[in-house]
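Example for tutorial group B:
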């Protein structure tokens, strides 16, 4: 059933296109055409007939979702079976694919058997999915509503009437427990029964509220519990003493119920926020350690095994080509992990910069070559300039920097320039030397929106970019400054252009000849 079918495979990663083509070959079909983005695929769909389309969700130029919407809106392709590939299992993304009219979806990585099952399903039942999302996808499946869990308060007061009064005003919004002495409160906490907040009277026999508060804050297990002290005097000295001991707040007696509830709610929210912040900091440290050790070792193993296989003379050229892609993909992932860790350390000030000589000309030429297909798809040209004059090739430009950091920075900036530029325009790459600084000027057609110009290099600053999170220019600034350089943006409404200028220290003076 599959052998005589014609497939269109759409993915921006060459390695994934090869994997899908190879998998289809194992299933007996060789009638496979590939495209690197949605725009190329759409042009092929106008001139070729296909029995099914396998496409990736995240692609440049035209995303998988945009292509799918076009396929469903055109009479010729309305009923064409479409299998969506995704590396993510976010429920909302799957729902978006279903809403766009996908026939089936499959999560990467996948086996040939799983691919065969999905293909058979979309060919036998080509109609778009209309049923609910697979319950195995996403961790945010709907949960049955449960009983609301109220925050737990501990009221400590030696006067029984005061305890009853406080319970009466708080019981509707909180679980309220009471004890009539500081000793009992401390014993309760030592037993592990920790409340979310403590309301503590200042004046009590044997052990007053100040001492109870001091002991609570001195114990690491209870130090984070907010304590609100009740003051009978309202004297400044009493209140400042309470704050000095670590109390979260002071409320004067007689208690005004709305004020007490408002104070309690405020400190419960603050306590939860602090707890979440600590959790995220711990999680970030864990992820850093995991990336440093748990991820890099197996990735290095993949690269090592691939290198060993490439040295085997018994392998056929086709097999070696596949293994080269495995090795290349391994290096890409390793570089991404390393870069992520480096950016994290740059942001918190713990990164150690070890400069070496990097030839920007070699690096920029590599970036232009790697994006040749996308440049052609977008109908963009590249013009090279050296010291203000147009040139066919750039002269050597050695700088003191880190090759991986430089590559990541300039690659992201060049991608941004391509995405911002209009069709049939030219991206200009100019190199100059000023004050022993290598200056790279990257100019594209188009202007930066007015609302983000002042925050262009700020974290999470983005505009008009679907799925953009605003980290590209922020990371570029971090990388440039880490290498003792700088980066600037100038946008001209008059010329309708945007220029990014990156300055890095030259490895030697007078490098341009």
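The residue assignment follows.
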């Amino acid at each position: 059933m599959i052998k005589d079918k014609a497939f269109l495979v759409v993915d921006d990663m060459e390695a994934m296109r090869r994997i899908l083509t190879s998998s289809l070959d194992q299933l007996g079909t060789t009638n496979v055409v590939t495209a690197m983005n949605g725009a190329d695929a759409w042009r092929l769909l106008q001139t070729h007939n296909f029995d099914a389309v396998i496409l990736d969700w995240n692609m440049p130029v035209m995303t998988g979702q945009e292509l799918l919407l076009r396929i469903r809106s055109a009479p010729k392709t309305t009923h064409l079976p479409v299998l969506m590939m995704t590396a993510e299992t976010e429920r909302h993304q799957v729902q978006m694919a279903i809403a766009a009219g996908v026939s089936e979806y499959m999560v990467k990585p996948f086996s040939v058997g799983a691919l065969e099952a999905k293909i058979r399903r979309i060919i036998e039942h080509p109609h778009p999915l209309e049923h609910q999302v697979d319950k195995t996808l996403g961790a945010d499946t709907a949960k049955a509503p449960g009983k609301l869990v109220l925050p737990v308060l501990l009221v400590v007061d030696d006067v029984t009437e005061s305890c009853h009064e406080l319970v009466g005003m708080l019981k509707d919004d909180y679980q309220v427990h009471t004890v009539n002495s500081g000793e009992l409160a401390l014993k309760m906490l030592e037993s592990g029964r920790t409340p979310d907040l403590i309301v503590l009277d200042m004046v009590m026999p044997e052990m007053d509220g100040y001492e109870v508060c001091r002991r609570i804050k001195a114990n690491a297990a209870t130090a984070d519990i907010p304590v609100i002290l009740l003051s009978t005097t309202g004297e400044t000295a009493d209140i400042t003493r309470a704050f000095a001991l670590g109390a979260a707040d002071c409320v004067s007696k007689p208690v005004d119920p709305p004020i007490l509830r408002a104070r309690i709610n405020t400190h419960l929210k603050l306590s939860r926020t602090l707890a979440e912040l600590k959790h995220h900091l711990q999680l970030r440290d864990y992820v850093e350690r995991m990336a440093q050790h748990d991820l890099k070792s197996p990735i290095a193993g993949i690269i090592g095994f691939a290198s060993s296989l490439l040295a085997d003379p018994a392998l056929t050229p086709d097999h070696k080509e596949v293994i080269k892609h495995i090795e290349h993909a391994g290096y890409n992932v390793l570089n991404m992990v390393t870069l992520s860790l480096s950016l994290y350390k740059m942001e918190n000030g713990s990164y150690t910069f070890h400069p070496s000589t990097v030839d920007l000309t070699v690096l920029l030429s590599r970036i232009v070559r790697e994006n040749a297909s996308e440049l052609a798809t977008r109908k963009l040209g590249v013009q090279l300039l050296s010291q203000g004059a147009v040139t066919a090739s750039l002269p050597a430009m050695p700088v003191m920097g880190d090759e991986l950091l430089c590559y990541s920075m300039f690659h992201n900036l060049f991608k941004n320039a391509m995405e911002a530029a209009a069709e049939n325009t030219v991206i200009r790459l100019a190199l100059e030397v000023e004050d022993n600084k290598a200056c790279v000027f990257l100019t594209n057609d188009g202007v930066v929106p007015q609302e983000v110009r002042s925050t262009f290099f700020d974290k999470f600053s983005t505009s008009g970019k679907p799925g953009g999170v605003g980290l590209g220019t922020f990371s570029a600034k971090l990388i440039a400054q880490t290498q003792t350089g700088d980066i600037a943006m100038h946008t001209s409404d008059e010329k309708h252009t945007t220029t990014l200028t990156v300055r890095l220290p030259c490895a030697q003076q007078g490098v341009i000849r």
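The chain has four domains: 7-124, 152-255, 279-348, 356-505. Compare this with the pattern of hydrophobic and polar residues in the output above.
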